[in-house]
Amino acid sequence: MVVATGPATDALVRGFGMERVDLRLGRGSNPGVIRAEEQPRGEDDALRGFFAATRRGPVATLAFQARARRDDLLWDPIDTARRVEEVVSRVHPDHVLVDHLAFSARLALRAAGVRHADVVLGHPSALVVGHDEVYGLPPSWPAAMRPPEEDLAGLRTLCEEVRDRFTADWNTALTTLDPGAPASPDAFAETGDVLLLNYPGELHEPGRTGRLGPHAFLGSAVREEPPDSEVERWLASSEAPVVYVSLGSFLSVRSDVLARVAAALRDLDVRVALATGSTAPADLGPLPPHWLVRPVLPQVTLLRAARLAVTHGGNNSVTEALTAGVPLLVLPLSTDQFAGAAALERTGLGLVRDPNVAPPEELREAVLGLLTPDAGRDAALARLAHDLTTRPGPQRARAALLDGIPA
Protein backbone atom coordinates (compact mmCIF):
# COMPACT_ATOMS: atom_id res chain seq x y z
CA MET A 1 0.00 0.00 0.00
CA VAL A 2 1.28 3.45 -0.93
CA VAL A 3 0.32 6.65 0.90
CA ALA A 4 0.77 9.99 -0.82
CA THR A 5 1.33 12.58 1.89
CA GLY A 6 3.75 15.19 3.19
CA PRO A 7 6.98 14.49 5.08
CA ALA A 8 5.53 15.33 8.52
CA THR A 9 3.64 12.01 8.58
CA ASP A 10 6.48 9.89 7.19
CA ALA A 11 7.13 8.06 10.48
CA LEU A 12 3.41 7.39 10.94
CA VAL A 13 3.10 5.89 7.46
CA ARG A 14 6.20 3.74 7.87
CA GLY A 15 4.99 2.66 11.31
CA PHE A 16 2.00 1.03 9.61
CA GLY A 17 4.33 -0.77 7.19
CA MET A 18 3.34 1.33 4.19
CA GLU A 19 5.34 3.17 1.56
CA ARG A 20 5.14 6.96 1.37
CA VAL A 21 5.40 9.05 -1.77
CA ASP A 22 5.68 12.79 -1.34
CA LEU A 23 2.52 14.83 -1.91
CA ARG A 24 1.92 18.01 0.03
CA LEU A 25 -1.72 19.14 0.11
CA GLY A 26 -1.63 22.21 2.35
CA ARG A 27 0.49 24.79 4.12
CA GLY A 28 0.41 23.32 7.62
CA SER A 29 0.82 19.80 8.98
CA ASN A 30 -0.84 17.62 11.60
CA PRO A 31 1.56 14.81 12.57
CA GLY A 32 0.67 14.73 16.27
CA VAL A 33 0.49 17.30 19.07
CA ILE A 34 0.02 20.69 17.43
CA ARG A 35 2.03 23.70 18.54
CA ALA A 36 1.77 27.05 16.78
CA GLU A 37 5.50 27.62 16.95
CA GLU A 38 6.12 24.43 14.93
CA GLN A 39 3.99 25.55 11.96
CA PRO A 40 5.28 27.35 8.85
CA ARG A 41 5.51 31.14 8.95
CA GLY A 42 2.00 32.61 8.70
CA GLU A 43 0.35 29.38 9.76
CA ASP A 44 1.55 29.96 13.33
CA ASP A 45 -0.40 33.23 13.59
CA ALA A 46 -3.44 31.60 11.99
CA LEU A 47 -3.33 28.82 14.54
CA ARG A 48 -3.09 31.30 17.41
CA GLY A 49 -6.06 33.17 15.96
CA PHE A 50 -8.03 29.96 15.84
CA PHE A 51 -7.23 29.14 19.46
CA ALA A 52 -8.29 32.64 20.51
CA ALA A 53 -11.57 32.27 18.60
CA THR A 54 -12.42 29.05 20.47
CA ARG A 55 -12.41 31.08 23.70
CA ARG A 56 -15.12 33.36 22.29
CA GLY A 57 -17.50 30.52 21.52
CA PRO A 58 -18.88 28.44 18.63
CA VAL A 59 -19.92 31.25 16.25
CA ALA A 60 -16.60 33.09 16.57
CA THR A 61 -14.73 29.82 16.01
CA LEU A 62 -16.77 28.73 13.00
CA ALA A 63 -16.58 32.23 11.49
CA PHE A 64 -12.80 32.22 11.88
CA GLN A 65 -12.61 28.82 10.20
CA ALA A 66 -14.94 29.92 7.40
CA ARG A 67 -12.75 32.93 6.59
CA ALA A 68 -9.62 30.78 6.63
CA ARG A 69 -11.35 28.27 4.37
CA ARG A 70 -11.33 30.76 1.50
CA ASP A 71 -7.70 29.92 0.82
CA ASP A 72 -6.86 26.76 2.75
CA LEU A 73 -8.95 23.93 1.37
CA LEU A 74 -8.26 24.30 -2.34
CA TRP A 75 -4.53 24.77 -1.96
CA ASP A 76 -2.48 25.19 -5.16
CA PRO A 77 -4.97 23.11 -7.21
CA ILE A 78 -3.27 23.11 -10.61
CA ASP A 79 0.22 22.17 -9.41
CA THR A 80 -1.32 19.68 -6.98
CA ALA A 81 -3.24 18.10 -9.86
CA ARG A 82 -0.03 17.65 -11.82
CA ARG A 83 1.65 15.99 -8.85
CA VAL A 84 -1.36 13.72 -8.24
CA GLU A 85 -1.29 12.66 -11.89
CA GLU A 86 2.42 11.87 -11.57
CA VAL A 87 1.83 9.75 -8.46
CA VAL A 88 -1.03 7.81 -10.08
CA SER A 89 1.05 7.25 -13.21
CA ARG A 90 4.02 6.01 -11.21
CA VAL A 91 2.14 3.81 -8.70
CA HIS A 92 -0.56 2.36 -11.01
CA PRO A 93 -2.96 1.77 -8.08
CA ASP A 94 -5.76 -0.78 -8.20
CA HIS A 95 -7.81 1.43 -5.88
CA VAL A 96 -7.51 5.04 -4.80
CA LEU A 97 -8.78 6.32 -1.44
CA VAL A 98 -8.69 10.03 -0.72
CA ASP A 99 -9.55 12.15 2.32
CA HIS A 100 -12.75 14.06 1.59
CA LEU A 101 -11.13 17.28 2.81
CA ALA A 102 -8.20 16.89 0.38
CA PHE A 103 -10.13 18.96 -2.14
CA SER A 104 -7.17 19.65 -4.43
CA ALA A 105 -6.43 15.93 -4.70
CA ARG A 106 -10.08 15.04 -5.31
CA LEU A 107 -10.34 17.74 -7.95
CA ALA A 108 -7.28 16.31 -9.67
CA LEU A 109 -8.65 12.76 -9.65
CA ARG A 110 -11.99 13.89 -10.99
CA ALA A 111 -10.42 15.94 -13.79
CA ALA A 112 -8.19 13.03 -14.76
CA GLY A 113 -11.08 10.56 -14.71
CA VAL A 114 -9.48 8.39 -12.02
CA ARG A 115 -12.07 6.38 -10.12
CA HIS A 116 -11.62 6.87 -6.38
CA ALA A 117 -13.20 6.32 -3.00
CA ASP A 118 -13.97 9.47 -1.04
CA VAL A 119 -13.48 8.90 2.70
CA VAL A 120 -15.16 11.32 5.13
CA LEU A 121 -12.90 10.88 8.14
CA GLY A 122 -14.73 13.36 10.38
CA HIS A 123 -18.39 13.65 11.21
CA PRO A 124 -20.62 13.12 8.12
CA SER A 125 -21.63 16.81 8.23
CA ALA A 126 -18.28 17.48 6.50
CA LEU A 127 -20.27 16.55 3.36
CA VAL A 128 -23.25 18.82 2.87
CA VAL A 129 -26.50 17.27 1.63
CA GLY A 130 -29.64 18.96 0.35
CA HIS A 131 -30.16 22.64 -0.40
CA ASP A 132 -30.63 23.71 3.21
CA GLU A 133 -27.15 22.78 4.43
CA VAL A 134 -24.11 24.98 3.93
CA TYR A 135 -20.58 23.89 4.66
CA GLY A 136 -19.26 25.27 7.94
CA LEU A 137 -22.67 25.64 9.59
CA PRO A 138 -23.50 22.62 11.79
CA PRO A 139 -26.79 20.98 10.80
CA SER A 140 -27.52 20.21 14.45
CA TRP A 141 -26.46 21.52 17.86
CA PRO A 142 -26.34 20.17 21.40
CA ALA A 143 -28.88 21.82 23.70
CA ALA A 144 -26.31 23.58 25.89
CA MET A 145 -24.51 25.21 22.98
CA ARG A 146 -27.01 26.31 20.34
CA PRO A 147 -26.24 29.97 19.54
CA PRO A 148 -28.93 32.65 19.16
CA GLU A 149 -30.75 32.59 15.82
CA GLU A 150 -29.43 36.01 14.80
CA ASP A 151 -25.86 34.81 15.30
CA LEU A 152 -26.57 31.68 13.26
CA ALA A 153 -28.07 33.80 10.49
CA GLY A 154 -24.90 35.88 10.27
CA LEU A 155 -22.76 32.74 10.25
CA ARG A 156 -24.90 31.25 7.47
CA THR A 157 -24.42 34.35 5.32
CA LEU A 158 -20.65 34.16 5.77
CA CYS A 159 -20.58 30.42 5.01
CA GLU A 160 -22.66 30.95 1.87
CA GLU A 161 -20.23 33.63 0.67
CA VAL A 162 -17.30 31.28 1.27
CA ARG A 163 -19.15 28.42 -0.48
CA ASP A 164 -19.80 30.54 -3.56
CA ARG A 165 -16.21 31.75 -3.76
CA PHE A 166 -14.84 28.26 -3.15
CA THR A 167 -17.14 26.77 -5.78
CA ALA A 168 -16.06 29.40 -8.31
CA ASP A 169 -12.40 28.56 -7.63
CA TRP A 170 -13.17 24.83 -7.92
CA ASN A 171 -14.90 25.32 -11.27
CA THR A 172 -12.12 27.53 -12.61
CA ALA A 173 -9.49 24.94 -11.74
CA LEU A 174 -11.66 22.10 -13.04
CA THR A 175 -12.14 23.86 -16.38
CA THR A 176 -8.39 24.43 -16.64
CA LEU A 177 -7.71 20.75 -16.04
CA ASP A 178 -10.69 19.39 -18.00
CA PRO A 179 -12.33 21.98 -20.28
CA GLY A 180 -15.32 19.73 -20.93
CA ALA A 181 -16.18 19.06 -17.30
CA PRO A 182 -19.58 20.30 -16.08
CA ALA A 183 -19.51 23.03 -13.46
CA SER A 184 -20.40 22.22 -9.87
CA PRO A 185 -23.25 24.13 -8.16
CA ASP A 186 -21.63 23.50 -4.74
CA ALA A 187 -18.09 22.15 -4.55
CA PHE A 188 -18.58 21.22 -0.90
CA ALA A 189 -21.26 18.72 -1.97
CA GLU A 190 -19.00 16.94 -4.49
CA THR A 191 -18.07 13.33 -3.73
CA GLY A 192 -15.96 10.60 -5.27
CA ASP A 193 -17.17 7.46 -7.04
CA VAL A 194 -17.45 5.55 -3.75
CA LEU A 195 -18.51 7.38 -0.58
CA LEU A 196 -17.23 6.00 2.73
CA LEU A 197 -18.08 7.57 6.08
CA ASN A 198 -15.91 6.83 9.11
CA TYR A 199 -18.85 6.97 11.48
CA PRO A 200 -21.45 4.62 12.98
CA GLY A 201 -24.61 4.70 10.91
CA GLU A 202 -26.60 4.09 14.11
CA LEU A 203 -25.76 7.62 15.29
CA HIS A 204 -26.57 9.41 12.04
CA GLU A 205 -29.93 11.13 11.75
CA PRO A 206 -32.14 8.89 9.55
CA GLY A 207 -33.50 11.82 7.56
CA ARG A 208 -30.01 12.97 6.67
CA THR A 209 -28.89 9.44 5.84
CA GLY A 210 -31.65 9.26 3.25
CA ARG A 211 -30.15 12.25 1.43
CA LEU A 212 -26.58 10.92 1.21
CA GLY A 213 -26.91 8.84 -1.94
CA PRO A 214 -25.01 5.52 -2.29
CA HIS A 215 -22.65 5.22 0.66
CA ALA A 216 -21.21 2.94 3.30
CA PHE A 217 -20.85 3.75 6.99
CA LEU A 218 -17.55 2.30 8.18
CA GLY A 219 -18.48 2.52 11.86
CA SER A 220 -14.95 3.06 13.13
CA ALA A 221 -11.37 2.39 12.11
CA VAL A 222 -9.74 1.63 15.45
CA ARG A 223 -6.01 1.06 15.26
CA GLU A 224 -3.90 -1.33 17.31
CA GLU A 225 -1.25 0.27 19.49
CA PRO A 226 2.14 -1.09 20.53
CA PRO A 227 2.44 -2.25 24.15
CA ASP A 228 3.22 0.47 26.69
CA SER A 229 4.68 -1.03 29.88
CA GLU A 230 4.03 2.09 32.00
CA VAL A 231 0.37 2.15 31.00
CA GLU A 232 -0.02 -1.59 31.56
CA ARG A 233 1.43 -1.31 35.09
CA TRP A 234 -0.82 1.66 35.84
CA LEU A 235 -3.94 -0.16 34.66
CA ALA A 236 -3.07 -3.19 36.78
CA SER A 237 -2.38 -1.14 39.92
CA SER A 238 -5.97 -0.55 41.04
CA GLU A 239 -9.60 -1.50 40.50
CA ALA A 240 -10.89 2.10 40.68
CA PRO A 241 -12.82 3.30 37.60
CA VAL A 242 -10.66 4.80 34.86
CA VAL A 243 -11.59 8.15 33.34
CA TYR A 244 -9.72 9.02 30.15
CA VAL A 245 -9.30 12.74 29.34
CA SER A 246 -8.04 14.23 26.08
CA LEU A 247 -8.78 17.33 24.03
CA GLY A 248 -6.92 16.02 21.00
CA SER A 249 -3.84 17.26 19.20
CA PHE A 250 -4.96 20.81 18.39
CA LEU A 251 -7.20 21.76 21.26
CA SER A 252 -5.06 20.49 24.11
CA VAL A 253 -3.75 24.06 24.05
CA ARG A 254 -6.94 25.01 25.95
CA SER A 255 -5.30 24.64 29.35
CA ASP A 256 -8.22 26.46 31.00
CA VAL A 257 -10.64 23.72 29.93
CA LEU A 258 -8.28 20.94 30.99
CA ALA A 259 -7.75 22.68 34.34
CA ARG A 260 -11.50 22.76 35.04
CA VAL A 261 -11.81 19.09 34.05
CA ALA A 262 -8.94 18.22 36.38
CA ALA A 263 -10.59 20.18 39.19
CA ALA A 264 -13.88 18.33 38.59
CA LEU A 265 -12.18 14.92 38.82
CA ARG A 266 -9.60 15.65 41.52
CA ASP A 267 -11.64 14.55 44.55
CA LEU A 268 -13.56 11.68 42.97
CA ASP A 269 -12.81 8.02 43.61
CA VAL A 270 -11.49 7.46 40.10
CA ARG A 271 -8.17 7.06 38.36
CA VAL A 272 -7.56 9.58 35.62
CA ALA A 273 -5.48 9.11 32.48
CA LEU A 274 -4.89 12.66 31.28
CA ALA A 275 -3.30 13.48 27.92
CA THR A 276 -2.03 17.03 28.33
CA GLY A 277 -0.88 17.56 24.73
CA SER A 278 0.62 21.04 24.42
CA THR A 279 -0.49 22.11 27.91
CA ALA A 280 2.10 21.97 30.70
CA PRO A 281 0.91 19.86 33.66
CA ALA A 282 1.91 22.69 35.99
CA ASP A 283 -0.90 24.78 34.44
CA LEU A 284 -3.55 22.32 35.64
CA GLY A 285 -3.26 22.79 39.37
CA PRO A 286 -2.34 19.98 41.79
CA LEU A 287 -2.69 16.57 40.15
CA PRO A 288 -3.06 13.45 42.31
CA PRO A 289 0.06 11.23 42.19
CA HIS A 290 -1.98 8.18 41.17
CA TRP A 291 -3.12 9.82 37.93
CA LEU A 292 -1.41 8.91 34.66
CA VAL A 293 -0.36 12.20 33.07
CA ARG A 294 1.62 12.44 29.84
CA PRO A 295 1.54 14.69 26.76
CA VAL A 296 0.45 11.73 24.62
CA LEU A 297 -1.22 8.52 25.78
CA PRO A 298 -2.26 5.32 23.96
CA GLN A 299 -5.89 6.29 23.55
CA VAL A 300 -7.26 3.00 22.24
CA THR A 301 -5.58 0.99 25.00
CA LEU A 302 -6.91 3.27 27.73
CA LEU A 303 -10.42 3.49 26.29
CA ARG A 304 -10.67 -0.29 26.40
CA ALA A 305 -10.18 -0.07 30.17
CA ALA A 306 -12.12 3.15 30.79
CA ARG A 307 -15.55 3.73 32.28
CA LEU A 308 -15.79 7.26 30.87
CA ALA A 309 -14.07 9.49 28.34
CA VAL A 310 -13.92 13.29 28.53
CA THR A 311 -13.29 14.68 25.08
CA HIS A 312 -13.57 17.64 22.73
CA GLY A 313 -15.64 15.42 20.44
CA GLY A 314 -13.22 14.82 17.58
CA ASN A 315 -14.47 12.02 15.38
CA ASN A 316 -11.59 9.64 16.13
CA SER A 317 -12.07 10.07 19.87
CA VAL A 318 -15.83 9.55 19.57
CA THR A 319 -15.71 6.48 17.35
CA GLU A 320 -12.88 4.87 19.34
CA ALA A 321 -14.74 5.40 22.62
CA LEU A 322 -17.95 3.96 21.19
CA THR A 323 -16.07 0.94 19.86
CA ALA A 324 -14.95 0.35 23.45
CA GLY A 325 -18.50 0.87 24.74
CA VAL A 326 -17.52 3.96 26.73
CA PRO A 327 -19.92 6.88 27.35
CA LEU A 328 -18.62 10.38 26.69
CA LEU A 329 -18.67 13.79 28.30
CA VAL A 330 -18.21 16.05 25.27
CA LEU A 331 -16.82 19.59 25.40
CA PRO A 332 -16.99 20.63 21.72
CA LEU A 333 -14.86 23.52 20.55
CA SER A 334 -14.83 23.67 16.74
CA THR A 335 -15.82 22.38 13.31
CA ASP A 336 -17.86 19.17 13.23
CA GLN A 337 -17.60 18.60 16.97
CA PHE A 338 -20.90 20.40 17.58
CA ALA A 339 -22.87 18.12 15.26
CA GLY A 340 -21.09 15.06 16.61
CA ALA A 341 -21.90 16.10 20.18
CA ALA A 342 -25.54 16.65 19.24
CA ALA A 343 -25.74 13.08 17.91
CA LEU A 344 -24.36 11.65 21.16
CA GLU A 345 -26.85 13.73 23.14
CA ARG A 346 -29.76 12.68 20.90
CA THR A 347 -28.91 8.98 21.16
CA GLY A 348 -28.28 9.14 24.92
CA LEU A 349 -24.69 7.90 24.65
CA GLY A 350 -23.14 10.99 26.18
CA LEU A 351 -23.59 14.37 27.79
CA VAL A 352 -22.52 17.73 26.39
CA ARG A 353 -21.35 20.78 28.29
CA ASP A 354 -20.10 24.17 27.11
CA PRO A 355 -16.29 24.06 27.53
CA ASN A 356 -16.02 27.83 27.86
CA VAL A 357 -18.45 28.32 30.74
CA ALA A 358 -19.09 25.01 32.55
CA PRO A 359 -17.55 25.23 36.05
CA PRO A 360 -15.90 22.25 37.74
CA GLU A 361 -19.05 21.59 39.78
CA GLU A 362 -21.17 21.20 36.65
CA LEU A 363 -18.56 18.97 35.02
CA ARG A 364 -18.32 16.85 38.17
CA GLU A 365 -22.08 16.35 38.21
CA ALA A 366 -22.00 15.23 34.56
CA VAL A 367 -19.14 12.83 35.28
CA LEU A 368 -20.99 11.28 38.22
CA GLY A 369 -24.11 10.90 36.09
CA LEU A 370 -22.20 9.05 33.38
CA LEU A 371 -20.38 6.83 35.89
CA THR A 372 -23.70 5.80 37.44
CA PRO A 373 -25.07 2.65 35.75
CA ASP A 374 -27.96 3.31 33.36
CA ALA A 375 -29.59 0.21 31.92
CA GLY A 376 -30.79 1.80 28.69
CA ARG A 377 -27.59 3.69 27.91
CA ASP A 378 -25.32 0.80 28.89
CA ALA A 379 -27.27 -1.66 26.75
CA ALA A 380 -27.16 0.69 23.75
CA LEU A 381 -23.41 1.16 24.17
CA ALA A 382 -22.89 -2.60 24.41
CA ARG A 383 -24.91 -3.24 21.22
CA LEU A 384 -23.03 -0.55 19.31
CA ALA A 385 -19.62 -1.72 20.56
CA HIS A 386 -20.45 -5.29 19.52
CA ASP A 387 -21.43 -4.15 16.04
CA LEU A 388 -18.34 -1.97 15.63
CA THR A 389 -15.94 -4.67 16.79
CA THR A 390 -17.64 -7.53 14.94
CA ARG A 391 -17.55 -5.62 11.64
CA PRO A 392 -14.61 -3.20 11.91
CA GLY A 393 -14.23 -0.30 9.54
CA PRO A 394 -11.41 -1.73 7.39
CA GLN A 395 -13.55 -4.78 6.58
CA ARG A 396 -16.50 -2.60 5.62
CA ALA A 397 -14.28 -0.37 3.48
CA ARG A 398 -12.79 -3.35 1.68
CA ALA A 399 -16.22 -4.78 0.97
CA ALA A 400 -17.43 -1.43 -0.41
CA LEU A 401 -14.38 -1.12 -2.67
CA LEU A 402 -14.42 -4.67 -3.98
CA ASP A 403 -18.14 -5.45 -4.03
CA GLY A 404 -19.52 -1.98 -4.64
CA ILE A 405 -22.26 -0.09 -2.84
CA PRO A 406 -25.90 -0.88 -3.67
CA ALA A 407 -27.59 2.04 -5.42
From TrEMBL:
Gene3D superfamilies: Glycogen Phosphorylase B. The keyword Glycosyltransferase applies. InterPro entries: UDP-glycosyltransferase, UDP_glucos_trans. The keyword Transferase applies. Pfam families: UDPGT (PF00201). Keywords: Glycosyltransferase, Transferase. It comes from the Bacteria. SUPFAM superfamilies: UDP-Glycosyltransferase/glycogen phosphorylase. PANTHER family: EG:EG0003.4 PROTEIN-RELATED, FI06409P-RELATED. This is Glycosyltransferase.
